[in-house]
Amino acid sequence: MRKVFHVSGRKKTSQVELIDDNSVVVDNERHSYSFERLADGTFMFFLDGRGFSIVDLRSMGMNEGEIGESGEILLVDGHEFSLTVDDEQSLLLKSLLQSQAPSSASVTIRAPMPGLVTKIEVSVGQQVNTGDGLLILEAMKMENEVRCPEKGTVKEIHVGPQTPVEKGSPLITIEH
Questions:
Q1: What DSSP string runs through 112-164?
Q2: What is the pLDDT of residue 64?
Q3: Tens digits of per-residue pLDDT, 157-174?
Q4: Strand 79-87 relative to strand 72-76: parallel, antiparallel, unpaired?
Q5: What is the pTM of this model?
């Protein structure tokens, strides 16, 4: 079950590796953890036996315009935290996107890994928001949804269903 995430806050980014259903390594320190979802939609998170009350403000009816375009806003024991959580694939995708010229009026999303495009979820001219699914890329018998990195309009789709792609191949261009 090993999965690696990078959790970024205002001042720090930590590497979090889920080892199994109750073990996690945070910045090279192993901890035990568990989650419990409460009836009111909040969560109790236990880290090394210490409990924290967690509320996801999106689940409380706040929309993205109120809390920002990306990341999550959580209340942990009454204290507000703004976090962005990325897995290895989304970090790779962000690095590919950052190689684009910042003054560009459009951004081309590129394949984060070799694979087979199995489904296109958007069409040319469609308005998309940050986080919207663009297409499904199958790699190593796993389906990976490629999501939109920023708000815009689909300008061009460079692939079709059942198209094999190499890492870095252009997939979709989004215009600002």
A1: SSSEEEEEE---TT-EE-TT-EEEEEEETTEEEEEE-SSSEEEEEE---TTEE
A2: 40
A3: 999 999 999 988 999 999
A4: antiparallel
A5: 0.46
Evaluate whether 6 touches 16 at the Cβ level (below 8 Å). yes
For 144, counting Cβ atoms within 10 Å of its Cβ (0-12 exposed, 13-18 middle, 19+ buried), the class is: buried
- Contact between 118 and 143 under an 8 Å Cβ cutoff? The reply is yes
The tokens describing 79, both together, are 């204290």
Side-chain-side CA neighbours of residue 7 (13 Å):
16
User: For residues 12 and 148, which has the higher predicted lDDT (pLDDT)?
Assistant: 148
Give the Cβ contact number of residue 70 at 10 Å: 12
Average pLDDT of 130-141?
89
- What's the rounded Cα separation, in Å, for the pair 171 and 160? 9
Question: What's at 132, amino acid-wise?
Answer: D
E-assigned strands of 3-141?
A: 3-8, 13-20, 23-26, 29-37, 43-47, 50-56, 72-76, 79-87, 106-110, 115-120, 127-128, 133-139
pLDDT digits (tens, 9 = 90+) for 141-154: 888 889 898 899 99
Which residue has tokens 């191949």? 169
